[in-house]
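Record type: ASSEMBLY
Status: queued
Input:
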Amino acid sequence: MGRQAGALNRIPVAAPSPAGEGFLLPIPVDIMLQSLIDGILLGGVYGVIATGLSLVFGVLGVVNFAQAEFLMLGMYVAWFAWRYLGLDPLLGSVLSFVVVFVVGYLVQRLLIARVLKAPPAAQVFLTVGLLIVLENAALMLFGSDFRSVSVPYQVQGFRLGDIFVGAPYLYAFAAALFLSAALWLFLDRSWTGRAIRAVAQDPMAATLTGVDTRLTYGVAFGLGVALTAFGGAVILPYITVSPTIGGQFVVVMFTVVVLGGLGSVAGALAGGLVVGIVQSVSTLFFPIQLQNLCLFVIFIAVLALRPQGLIKGA
Amino acid sequence: MFQATVRRRLVLAGFMGLAMCGTAAVTRALAAEDVVIGVIQPLSGPNAQFGIGSQRGAELAAEMINAAGGIKALGGAKISLVMADVPTPATAAAATQRLISQNNVSAVIGAFVSSTTLAASEVTERAGIPLVTFAFADQITERGYKYVFQVSPKGTVFGEAQFNSAIEIAKAAGDKIEKVAILYEDTAYGTAQAKGLRAAATKAGVQVVLDEAYPLGITDVSPLVNKLRASGAQMAFPVSYLNDGLLIIRALRQQQIDIPVVGGAAGYIIPDFKKGLGEYAEGVLSVAAASGDLIPELAAKYKEKYGTFITHEALIHAAALDAVVQAIEKAKSKDPEKIRDALATLDYCAGFARGVPGGCVKFDANGLNASAFPIMVQWRGDEPVTVYPPKAAKQKPVWAGKPVP
Amino acid sequence: MRAKLTPGLVLLLLFFVAAALLPFYVDPRGHVLRVAAMALLFAALAQSWNIVGGLANQISLGHAAFFGIGAYTSTLLYLRLGISPWLGLVAGAALAGLAAALLSLPTFRLKGHYFALATLAFAEVMRVIANSWAGLTGGPVGLSIPFVGSQPLNFAFRAVSSYYWIILGLLVLVCLVFRLLASGAIGYRLRAVRENEAAAEVAGVDTFRVKLTASVISAALTAVCGSVFAQFTFFFDPDSIFSLAGVSVRMAMIAIVGGLGTLAGPIIGALFLIPLEEAANAVLSSKAAGLSQLVFGAILIAAILIQPRGIMAYWPKRWSRRAAPAAVPHTEPALAKGSQ
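Status: finished
Output:
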């Protein structure tokens, strides 16, 4: 491969570190630390993506299988914003948030609202239908191309001794933290946020105190999918978007939410970190191929021991 | 209330009706003299990008053959392609059966993805319809099936070529490679090619310091790159589709690891690779089954029609269709049985077969194109060009920024 | 309790007779019969799922695990040891039953969505194992059943119609099991568990044992479908046999669109959805990539919006001697109590 003139200085690849180094663990400390950091950066983004799913469930009681398709939508919005408006995806993510919020609101009012009183199974499969429609509509509208942005920090990284941190991962993590803080403020301080929480706890009582539950359901769903879309936009610098990208997140997203406790917003963030760390650290002990096996075994075990998720009442 | 119920029943009846008559609608007769050939490709789902490229190759080839007078042995009969979308192996059997029994295809070409092709071949073999494919997991031609023909070499051969060509280019440039890393996605294609890489490394006495499979659709390659960094490999051989390929190269850049990466076809040689990596695509090497610069006139037509360079899957599918057409010319019949016999003895070195490295289509007893070999391409500007082996090369390879003598 | 012949049962019997005669009226090697066979196979799958999903209201999204266990067991026994798939099918059912029993240990306490997602994870675990343990399973390349011509003892036939009748027989068997379970003592216990688990417990129902029995039977039948599927399609790979969308979700969806917990629901659902999907593929897949799936998804949404309780909700109640059990307990949308 041609070396880019002046872009990088050729640094020697580290020789295999002598294993052990007197620790009980057969894994050197720096490699362990590196994995932990990678896991945390990844997990922060999982957290924000899954928070949306958790919010939708918490308020509407609907497990939204199409949630990851809104991640895909968010990525496309950010991609078009980058391509035609020159917006960095980290800024474009705001646009993704807004656009997908509107789409989500409409989807809730036009489709989900009609099955809120239907058997849960019908709700689940309505969202499965929605998943199929969104994925294939994207295929028809945008084609099957793998679209990718190019931004300068994409190939930059920070180095601290033997620890490397990829810039896009760090920025995505920071954006995820920012949005989580904003969400917390919104739910805690704003009237709409409180209305959402009220409806989640008791729709009847909320109605009696003057909350428009139908509107609130729409807003909550829109907000939920917009959060996920935001998460999609901020990872665009390191992941390409194609109509089927959602499929690669859907199972992980559910794992995060269940570990954190379905419906719990803070739990989803914690669950995201747990999943990110498990995925990353498990590769030190097992082949990467078995990454998700480790995750799911832990998942089932946690459910068996704590059927309401890791974080209860968060 | 009553009306609502009636309306619902009517809607329901409508759905049922649609479901019933849909299958019959496709049976409409085609002009009697047309030769119908089935094209099965993943047009939706995660491999759609490759399926659409493959389909375009076949479409363009049919168009050009028809424009040049169709099939002469059948009095200028036109080729008519019937497409079917096979996003997963589970859909392949039904779709292939549909083409055979509803559309009376004379042959089938496709389906890019190895597992889908394996599924389809079980149907074509039992129905006695020739299947000409580009997919190259070793199992496809190792089952001794009579109706399966593969235009390009086997997956393990691709793996061996990926390794040997890269080592030789490095050697010519004065680099001695002693430690390498093999990274592959755990699909039929990835494992077959990794097997070839491993075998070639053992044979060459080169140490494989990292040999790691990762799940298809991986979204975070940090663990992979951490392992690569710790392994001390001097060269990496990833076998992957696009997204993981981009992720790996970017993560290497972030960690300032500047070892050469030699790609394993698929995602490394499509237009989106360049779009995704920009200047970082320049100089990336990859093994390939074919390249547009081997057959410039077809490449030019393709670019004119679809706006991008011709990918190897498009080119090989054009050659696959041409092989079927030549077999029909030879058999002077559109009977699948006769086409199969003609394919088995085909020795064709003109037309689109010139785009296949080696320049010919000639199948051995297993249905493998014995004359084809993998090539090494390297990104130059917006397109990959053929750089190895010398007998096929259009330009000299570049190694570590310098042209290789 | 012996049921009298209700109009519903008569119609069902007529359906089975008509289905048995179908191969005489269509091309016995052709596409229509293959689609019909697939529809019947999915009806059998959905009916197996209906035993836990419909009777106990345990929405499993991981039945692909048992489907795959069946397919892998019979096929591997045949390819490696030469054991006839007819025997392998029984072994697969036993193994799947065992797997279901083991899975019950950590999941039986789980409710609703937690149960669904735990089973989903279990199927993913099975998929990863099948993909990675190449020495045993052949890995991601999948398994091919060799083409040996007609060997009835080895479950190999030339004509699609042979497979079709076997699948029809399987469907009849699964429907019989479902009917026996639903109308027997276990059916009442399952429904008690479904309506109110705590109350059932107090009333003396051993809820764990009832649920365990149902899930073992359901898993074993699903595995038999898996073995038959493998023989019928001659090829499968880990991604397609353990597929979430292609198997787990689909079998549940068929039962739900048809009518959850009813005997005819899965059959109606399968006869509606499978030909519909195939027709959409046949007519639209050459038009524009994604269009056929888009239409399929839209029709699915429409079907659920028009009648969330499934097509069987249109079945006139007075035609059944005993009112069909209410499809699903009428619960408020389960609100998370963990999000205060």
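Annotation: The CA atoms of residues 331 and 338 of chain B lie 6 Å apart.
Annotation: Confidence is low (pLDDT under 50) at residues 1-32 of chain B.
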